[in-house]
Amino acid sequence: MLMDQELSRTNVSVIPIVGMGGIGKTTLAQIVYNDHRLVGKFDLKMWASVSMDFDTISITKSIIESASGERCKLSGLDPIQVNFQNLIRGKKFLLVLDDYWSEEYRDWDLLCSPFKVGARGSMIIVTTRSTIVSRILGSVPSYCLKSLNDENCWELMKRRACANRILDNDLQIIGRMIATKCRGLPLAAKTLGSMLHFKDNPVEWRSILESEMWDLRQYKNDIFPALTLSYYYLPPQLKKCFTYCSIFPKNHAFEANELVLQWMAEGFIRPVGKIRPEDLGNDYFKGLLCRSLFQYSHVNVHGQNIYKMHDLIHDMAQLISAHACLRQKDNQATEECTSWRNTRHFSLHFQTLEPVILKGSAWYKNLRTFRVIHENFGNIQVSYDLFLKLKALRVLDLSRLGLDELPDSIDHLKHLRYLNLSENHFRKLPESVTHLFGLQTLKLEQCLQLLELPSKMKNMVSLRHLHLDVKQLNCMPSEFGKLVNLQSLPAYIVGRSRGCGIRELKNMRLLRGSICIKNLENVSNVNEAKEAMLDRKPFLDKLELEWNDVGPNNNGEEILAGLRPHENLKELVMINYGGFLLPSWFGNPLCKLSSIYLQSCHHQQILAPLGKLRHLKSLIIEDMCNLSHMGPEFDGFSSLESLTIKDMPNLTSWSGFNGGCPCLSTLDINDCPRLTNLPSFMNINLLRCLNISLCPEIHSLPHDGLPVSLQALTISESDHIKDRCRIEEGEDWYKIRSIPKIEIDYVEITWEMRRF
């Protein structure tokens, strides 16, 4: 339907997918959204979850965030819609509005008013349970999903239940009978099948078939019996983890590691020997995922897998958690309810534009979790007494509220294990934060006005994960190295004063993931660099080493020699490295470096040794101002698959690969304003993608043509070769005419445009 030529002639077409809950509407929309046949058909693809509580502002902000990959901090419908119009103006877009409920014409009219500025052929897919909605929105006949028959239900359930094993005859007979109870709903079949995967005994299968839950009066003609059974048969350690998720709103984007940190703080993860609780928690999450209680959604802008919970499963989690987990909106009554005394996990959701002051309440005393969500960024304050009422608290999430300050009464939260203060306007935190001796996770991401960290952070000895942005910080607190349990530390700023040097990293042997070490010009000598003991940190995958631009210097070479990482390191970034040579550890045969990014490094002599790295697959070279000619630097590189050359103001010529880079498949040449030629690619037999951008002086494509392996060529803002590649008329057209995908100045040259 999306490929229909008739539909592409209208400005915006709306295609409704209609069916009951759990029938597979969202799954079908995801399949269409990710279909390879749509690649290149739309300028912009967006996805937004609508849900039952229709709010035009929230929905539009969600669409904007899907399109831009950034959080929309605007408030007020008019500026938000203007922003959205600017994003889609003149563009052909595909938008999915998932789980649309409102049957009011005025809601749809208000939401869709910005869509009109999109280009002809734009399309909107709407999933809904309501045929009335489909009639209000749809510009074409609805696509109605029907229930599966019992045989198809069993096949879907069996696929999840048996995986790689063969089911005996008894299990097949019982399984078919269970399938008839799914009432044709794929979600029920998938969830039951995932549960049966962990049951091998016919007795266990029959107990599920004969469970009284199928006959509970409140569940008649509903999917809930199948879903509730999947909860009933969960391992005990997963039950609390599952019901805890009910405090999040429907369609919440779950990131596994983030959720695990909260489970840890709540004490849901039982210790097993020496296994990290984070690893156990990830196993818990996988246990829920493989039982279909979570569903994979997408990869976010940070490269993290995002998962969602089907709204029916979310309803079940809320039903089971009863009053233990409570979500309250600002338009609901705020006086104490008797049942709230049993609440342990509380989420407060504001949508008002009025100023908000968070105050304490007597029934807060038993809370373990307190989360605040504000749709309209800012205009909120925290009262001093709030923290006095939350003395049992373990998880506190005040992120994305635009807070200017935090009361120093926070030190009353003696049991706090998780504190998220990201995306606020703090210039500093109260020193009393450092009295939270049990805190395991502190999140300060996107607090761009934060000028300093509390001076006594060395006292927070239980801290395992510190997430923050350090662009605006000048130094780390003194004796930071006493935080020996830290596992996540995105950056460390090397200072000159006592207790702030690079030796503070010495005993942080549990560090993992990625770390950026800044201000390396403050390291005096190789012995001081060695005190960081980076070679004793086997769990680090990525290391960034950054000097302030101090010009060429020999000291940089010895400092880099002292910063030898562990052989397990996969990625290395070096910024403003001024040395002429690389240290000997680059030649270590055990080195597993697969990705290197060099930015603003001063000397091209450092390139040649990289060719000896056997595992190197990706190399980015940016802003190497002294590089004027490239040639023998690219001998070797036997495993290199991706090479990017960008922002090279003085690069004028490139003589060739000389037999190097035999595995190269992607080459990006970007912003080389003085480069006049391209090298010969004839020895690069696996090259599939070539991108040339902002290179106005390149006179032509190589005289011996391009490799026959090339599948995609992109040329932008490079006038000479653009002119030579004009369809049929350009002198280099014959060199590119058979390449499957060609894009020149952001316009795809389709097969129909090529006249053979």
From TrEMBL:
UniProt-listed Gene3D superfamilies: Helical domain of apoptotic protease-activating factors, P-loop containing nucleotide triphosphate hydrolases, Ribonuclease Inhibitor, Winged helix-like DNA-binding domain superfamily/Winged helix DNA-binding domain
Record-given protein name: Disease resistance RPP13-like protein 1 isoform X1
Record keyword Repeat present: yes
Keywords carried by this UniProt record: ATP-binding, Leucine-rich repeat, Nucleotide-binding, Plant defense, Repeat
Domain R13L1/DRL21-like LRR repeat region, residue spans: 502-624
A GO term for molecular function: ADP binding
InterPro entries in the cross-refs: Apaf_helical, Leu-rich_rpt, Leu-rich_rpt_typical-subtyp, LRR_dom_sf, LRR_R13L1-DRL21, NB-ARC, P-loop_NTPase, WH-like_DNA-bd_sf
Domain NB-ARC, chain residue ranges per copy: 5-164
Biological processes annotated in GO: defense response; response to other organism
PROSITE patterns tied to this protein: LRR
Pfam families per the UniProt record, alphabetical: LRR_R13L1-DRL21, NB-ARC, WHD_DRP
